[in-house]
Structures are given as C-alpha cells and as structure tokens.
Amino acid sequence: MLPTDSFMCFPGQMWEKVLSKVKKAVVFMDDHCSESLHWNGGAACLFQAGARNVKRFSSFEAGGENEPKAVFVVSTLLKGRTADIIKDIISLSHFQYCVVFTAVPHSVHLLAGTVSPEVEGSPVFERFEETLREWMGDMNYTAEVLHAQLLFAQLSPQLLLLPSFADLFPLLEPDLGSVNGSRPEKRRFGSLMDVDMHSLPPELQIKIKSLASALNALFEFSRTREESFAVGPMSRLIAGELASHPQAKNRRKTAVNKASVVFIDRTLDLTGAVGHHGDNLVDKILSVLPPLPGHVTDVQVDMVELTRLRCTSEVQGVLTPGCLAQNQSATARLLWETMLVAKQKEAVMEVRRQLVEAASKENLPFKMNLGRVTAEQLSSYVQLFRGSWGALESHCGVLQLGLATVQTLRHADLTRWDACLAFERLLLQQFSTEHRSVVMDASFPV
Q1: Is 80 left (phi over 0), alpha (psi -120 to 50) or beta?
Q2: pTM
Q3: Which of 19, 133, 179, 438 is least surrounded by Cβ atoms within 10 Å, i.e. has the fewest?
Q4: Strand 153-156 relative to strand 159-161, pairing
C-alpha cells in the first residue's frame, strides 16, 4: 500500500472504532469531532451502523427513557467542562451502558493529571470508567473509555486537515515576556527560538502534544518514517515533540515508507491569510459564504433556489443549509476535487458541465449556452430541478456545489476580491523597480 493510500484510509479507520460501538445507542458528539465526521461520511454512517439518535454534546441534551446506551465522542481531555457535561447528560438520562471516545491519548491525560506515568495500564481511563458507573447509579452497569484519533477532516484523498487545531497560533514576541515572567533573571530566554516545551503554559503544552500524537498515529498507520524540517519557533517545538514521541522510535524502526514533513509557523505566511492570491474557486467560496455553525472548514449554502418558495425573510432559517462536503455521490466528490485544485475558470466550466449532464440524465429541458459561464446561467440550470424530488435526491451533491458557485459569483465581496488581487499584483511588480522604498511607504496607509 502506498503512503497516500494509507493517509486516505486513516480517518475512516479511526471512525470505524466508533461505528463498532454505536449500535442501539444515542450518540453525543462535540463540534470538533462532528466536523471530522462531516468530511468522513457524515451522520449517515452512524445511523447505518445502528445508532438510534445523534445529539449535540451539551448539558441541555439527554437520552430518552427507552435509550439505555450512550456513546460520547469528544475531542478534549476527560476533565473539567467535558466531564461536567457528560455527568449532566447521564444524570438526566437512564443509561446502563456508556462508551466514551476521546481524541486525546492517555499519555496526554497523564500529563494533565496527577497519576504517575509509571503506573501500568490506563489508570486515568479506568478511573473515569468507575466514575461513569457512579453517575449511572449502579457499579454493575457497563462503562468503557477508549481513545481514537478522530480529528482529521479528509477534504480530498490528497488533503487532510485538523480543524481542532485551527486556533493553535505561533508564539509572538510579546509572548516572550509572559514566558520569562515566571523565570529567574539569569535563566530568561533571549529569543523565541530558545523557548522550550516545559516553559510553555500547561494548556499549550497539551495542545502541542495532542497534535504530535495525532501526526504520529497517522505515520504509524501508514508505516512511515518522517524527516522533519521546521521554520519558526513554534514549528521547532512541534517537530521536536513529534521526534521524541514515546512510540516514534519503534515506528521508525519498522517503517517501510519515507516522508518529508515541513512545519511552518503561520506568522511566516500571514500574506496568505490576508491576501488574495491565486485564482481558485474554493478559496473564494470559503472567503465569502458564511461558515457552518461550529465548523471552520465548510460553509452554508442557501438552498432556497431549489424550492418553489420565494426568497423572503420569512424563509430564512427554515431550510437546512447545503455544504461543500459531499460524501454520498462519486460525481459530486470528483467535482469537488476539481474545484479544489483547478483555476476558477476551469472549475466554473466543470460545474456547468456537471449540471448539464445531470439535467440531461433526468430529461429536464435546458438550453445549452457555450462561451462565458455566468452565475445566472448556472442558476437557471439548478432551478430546472425544482419540484422534481427524485432528481433532487439523485444529484443533491452536484446541486449544492453548483449553488455554492452561483452564490459566490454573485457575492458583492467578489468584486472587491478581484480589485484587491489586481492591486497586490501591481505592488509586486513595483517591488522590482528603482522606487521600491516609495512603494513600501505608500503601502502603509492602505
């Protein structure tokens, strides 16, 4: 098996552990794990595996009287607010069997707790199992606590993201003062490159160790030995943590594949975050459409155009929004991958081609227009499917991606995007002239 094949299979294999436990259970899941599942089959996988219901991980949720089994899927440590929510849900329910999956490994739980690492087994998980039985009200009830790396969102076979680490930001110069504040004057760090893991706040240490553990699990699954390169102080810490991971030494001895891993501090690529580089359709969709609640990698697609309802304020909030993650249709997945890597013009033309093909398969009347693709043209193809529920179901994925394209092309911010991109390119051209300093000075007021 090639490494890329292993990377593609890894998220699904991790979710198989959860699917094997959800039969006849009500599932409670937090936002980060929900986002991972969203890109790895969605809630449909849970129902196909026998789950009775799927609910948000919240103190305001509970199981029904005839729901004796619960599965909790969380991305956090089993302490603090997470433990409180689990207790609240159990106290409002009638569970006799509880399974808890956490994406944080036991080794990190040891770091965050008071149990000695030398103790055999998984004492933190075993102790939490006893706590679950106490909360259920009978020590003879069944409780299981398991670990699975459920944080990878598979946007395509070549692209895996870790949405739960979206807020992990590199250290900045002002942070150096905070780090040195608790250290003796003679042992203070002179620069961020001198900062070590043990001097960081405990919460940040746990975040970095959790990330390193997730990456190690991915490499272990794919039997890969990595060669790491780090650019920036935070990247150096993460690469070092991955290199010193307890399971990394044995993994590298038995690995049959090799990979180069480059860690880059986000502060070294700020222009990519605030600029308007490239000509990619998905980049623009993610920039202008509102995010799905609780997600950082997907957006809401307004589905009103697929109904016979008028687009009025009365309709807002009634329809469930569409999205970019299309797991059920092979055609939609291929279209999404094209949109992800192609230039905007090529991607928009492919959207039109797929909409025309879908309309043709359903014998819907359409007028083929060659030449430049417009938002109005794509919208007219989408609206052919209104009221035809069988056709809507068969081509729902392509229609959602088509609507995302239409709403992006119509968006007022797109004109400003193009204007900013043109201005940035003009600035780059001027950097090569004799008047570079004048250009730099002129850019500050902008």
Answers
A1: left
A2: 0.88
A3: 438
A4: antiparallel
